[in-house]
Design brief:
Elements lengths: L2 H12 L4 E3 H10 L5 H13 L14 E3 L2 H28 L1
Antiparallel strand pairs: 1-2
């Protein structure tokens, strides 16, 4: 991983880009002298492994790259909490009847 790659990632996060497509990552990669799919996947894997982004290399899941990990965690927490609250409401309404 190069300093140039880290700087480019930081620029995206500062622009408030929370997620990008794999195609956009390829375009950005070319600006960072990453020209092969193997190099791109290696960079994304390294960034994922140190917690800078979320990305899965499996087909069907690899097109989305989350740049703002905290935003994703907050969204998932809110979703799970909302489901939990709704489930408790349903169960408490059933107990009152």
């Amino acid at each position: 991983m190069s300093l140039k790659q880290l700087i480019r990632l930081q620029e995206l996060v500062e622009k408030k880009e929370r997620r990008i497509s794999l195609d956009k990552a390829r375009q950005i990669g070319k600006l960072c002298d990453i020209h092969t799919e193997e190099e791109l996947c290696r960079m994304l894997t390294e960034f994922r492994d140190i917690g800078l982004l979320m990305w899965h290399s499996e087909e069907g899941r690899r097109d989305l790259i989350i740049l703002d990990v905290q935003w994703m965690l907050n969204a998932m927490t809110q979703l799970l909490c909302q489901r939990s609250i709704e489930a408790k409401r349903r169960s408490s309404h059933g107990m009152r009847q």
